[in-house]
Design a protein that fits this description.
Blueprint lengths: L2 H23 L5 H9 L20 E4 L2 E3 L2 H12 L7 E4 L5 H9 L3 E5 L2 H13 L6 E4 L12 E6 L8 H5 L1 E12 L4 E9 L2 E10 L10
Parallel strand pairs: 3-4, 3-6, 4-5, 6-7
Antiparallel strand pairs: 1-2, 7-8, 8-9
The structure holds S-adenosyl-L-homocysteine.
S-adenosyl-L-homocysteine binds next to strand 2, helix 4 and strand 4.
């Protein structure tokens, strides 16, 4: 850790406490989710030049035209996915910086995260290690095809917007499992919650959101 990062580390506990208070004011009520977010040092997941802004409730650039999600959106998605149950085996599509994967790892023991951009994945690996979360399984792959070798998943969380729900992800959702994804294009997106029951899939449209697009292939 360099000197600037160490300085931010010292003040991060205070700013993190403030971030949690803000999330509460914004309506996040799941104590497990709040504790998970409080436990992850977000400044380790953003570029050094932006570390002082790590605890603001804002999306920040990751490079490669990607962004680390806003803490409120991470909290809200996890709250929706957890409602009334444990997350169980979880797949994240779009690992980005690894931040959300680190938060997931506070809530459940089995976390897989795929990312299509190799240098971002390498960065995520370093970030997760620095945050003491080496247990997250990171895979360089196109999330449109999910992760068949580790399926089925109790929870699937997609961190990039798609106009159509990838069929592979539906297939890899366990019975009783939940998937949450931003549905739509750049102009208009909402969160879509999909639950798999014995009789099929149920879909619930939730609030509007703004995510980078889910792309195809790897690079
Ligand atoms: N969850 C991340 C932020 C995600 S930004 C964090 O906490 O930092 C969305 C990410 O999805 C980007 O890193 C982007 O490269 C990735 N992505 C987009 N399409 C993808 C695909 N088809 N497969 C895997 N990752 C994808």
């Amino acid at each position: 850790m360099n000197v600037a990062a160490a300085g931010i580390g010292m003040t991060s506990q205070r700013t993190r406490t403030r971030m949690i208070a803000r999330l509460r004011e914004q309506g996040i009520g799941d104590e497990h989710v709040l504790a998970a977010i409080a436990a992850v040092p977000r400044h380790l997941f953003v570029e050094e030049a932006l570390a002082s802004r790590a605890y603001e409730d804002t999306a920040l650039p990751l490079g490669y035209a990607q962004t680390i999600s806003q803490p409120y959106v991470v909290a809200r998605m996890l709250e929706i996915l957890r409602e009334g149950r444990e997350l169980g085996k979880t797949l994240e599509i779009g690992a980005g910086s690894g931040y959300q994967a680190a938060v997931l790892a506070q809530l459940t023991t089995e976390v897989y995260a795929v990312e299509r951009i190799a240098p971002l994945l390498a960065r995520a690996r370093i970030n997760l290690q620095a945050a003491g979360q080496a247990g997250v399984l990171l895979v360089h792959a196109d999330g449109n095809t999910g992760l068949p070798e580790a399926a089925p998943f109790d929870t699937i969380i997609v961190a990039a917007a798609t106009a159509r729900v990838p069929n592979a992800l539906l297939q890899q959702l366990a019975l009783g499992g939940r998937m949450l994804l931003p549905l739509g294009t750049a102009g208009r997106q909402c969160l879509l919650l999909i639950e798999r029951r014995a009789g099929g899939f149920s879909e619930t449209r939730l609030e509007d959101v703004s995510f980078v697009p889910l792309l195809s292939g790897i690079e």
